[in-house]
Structures are given as structure tokens and as C-alpha cells.
């Protein structure tokens, strides 16, 4: 499901971004299929061993695939260990953009990740994304779930910063 800045733009306000973030469920055994889906020479895709290693990480696995012709990049996050991953997969949304339809992470999940990334790197773009999402889509979000998750994930400081 699409997450990160592209999802924040869809649920919030437009901004420039250089990639698309995708939260995925992938078994170690099926990681090799990425090289079939994104074949060389059109795509720069990591070796199967790297894909398998990242797929089995208990937390924060990550790899990217780059379209050689355009330089566009997709960052894939096998995030199954995140406490809200299964909830997000069950509540993902099918959205149409142009002529295509894509699964998007629910905005609450995107906000949680944005707050976690802000905690790690202190990049203001994450807080701006959260603020934009709250301004545009806040009324349609499950605020009780969001507040519980913020407390559970110990993101209170980041949540307060986003609301300032």
C-alpha cells in the first residue's frame, strides 16, 4: 500500500517529493518475485539475497527499486512488525489517480510513520505533512485510534510538535 509522502499528498496538501514509499507484506520466499516484476535492464532492483534479508528483518526492513529510464525510485518497507501494520492493511483504501487505481495506507497509519520518521531525523517536512493531512482529512480520521497509537508508540512529543 502506498504510504509516505505520496499518501500524505493524497490526504493532505501538495508538495514535491522524489520517490514513492510502499508498505508491503512479503514472505522471504517470495522476495525473488520482485526481480521478475521489476526486471533488468529497465529497473535497478537489489539482488535476491538482499531482498530476502530485508523481508525477514524483524523491524524496519527497507529496499528500493529504481526505474533506469526515468530515475524514479520506489522505497519498499516490509513493515509487518509495526504494531499497526495489520490494522492498516485491513483499512487500506483503493484510490484512483489518473487512469490507475492504487491501494493507499489509511491516513492514521501514514501519520504514525511520519511522526516516527520525524522522531528519528527531525525533518520538518514530516510535521508539515501531518499538519496538511489533519487540515484536509482530519475530520475523516479515527482520532481515538490515532491518540491511542500515539501513546502506545510513545510519539506524544512528536504529535504535540505537529499540532503546534
Shape: globular
- In the sheet with the most strands, the strands line up as 1-2-5-4-3
Strand content: 15-25%
Helix count from the secondary structure assignment = 8
Topology overview:
Layout: E1 2-3, H1 4-11, E2 19-24, H2 33-37, E3 43-44, H3 48-56, E4 63-67, E5 73-78, H4 85-90, E6 93-97, E7 100-104, H5 107-121, H6 124-137, H7 143-152, H8 156-163
Parallel strand pairs: 2-5
Antiparallel strand pairs: 1-2, 3-4, 4-5, 6-7
What does this structure look like?
With 164 residues, the protein is of the alpha+beta class. α1 (4-11) packs parallel to α6. It is globular and about 45 Å long. The mean pLDDT is 92. It has helices at 4-11, 33-37, 48-56, 85-90, 107-121, 124-137, 143-152, 156-163, and strands at residues 2-3, 19-24, 43-44, 63-67, 73-78, 93-97, 100-104. The strands form two sheets. A five-stranded mixed β-sheet has the order 1-2-5-4-3. The chain has a two-stranded antiparallel ribbon with strand order 6-7. The two termini are 29 Å apart.
Q: What keywords describe this structure?
A:
single chain, 164 residues, alpha+beta, five-stranded mixed sheet, two-stranded antiparallel sheet, 8 helices, 7 strands, 19% strand, globular
Summarize the structure.
46% of the residues lie in helices and 19% in strands.
Amino acid at each position: 500500500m502506498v504510504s509516505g509522502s505520496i499518501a500524505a499528498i493524497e490526504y493532505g496538501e501538495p508538495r514535491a517529493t522524489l520517490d514513492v514509499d510502499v508498505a508491503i507484506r512479503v514472505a522471504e520466499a517470495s522476495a525473488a518475485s520482485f526481480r521478475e516484476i521489476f526486471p533488468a535492464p529497465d529497473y535497478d532492483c537489489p539482488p535476491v539475497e538482499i531482498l530476502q534479508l530485508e523481508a525477514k528483518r524483524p523491524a524496519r526492513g527497507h529496499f528500493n527499486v529504481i526505474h533506469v529510464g526515468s530515475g524514479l525510485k520506489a522505497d519498499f518497507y516490509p513493515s509487518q512488525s509495526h504494531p499497526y501494520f495489520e490494522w492498516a492493511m485491513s483499512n487500506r483504501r483503493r484510490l484512483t489517480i489518473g487512469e490507475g487505481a492504487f491501494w493507499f495506507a489509511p491516513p492514521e497509519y501514514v501519520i504514525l510513520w511520519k511522526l516516527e520518521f520525524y522522531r528519528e531525523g527531525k525533518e520538518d517536512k514530516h510535521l508539515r505533512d501531518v499538519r496538511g493531512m489533519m487540515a484536509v482529512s482530519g475530520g475523516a480520521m479515527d482520532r481515538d485510534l490515532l491518540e491511542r497509537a500515539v501513546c502506545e508508540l510513545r510519539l506524544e512529543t512528536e504529535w504535540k510538535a505537529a499540532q503546534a
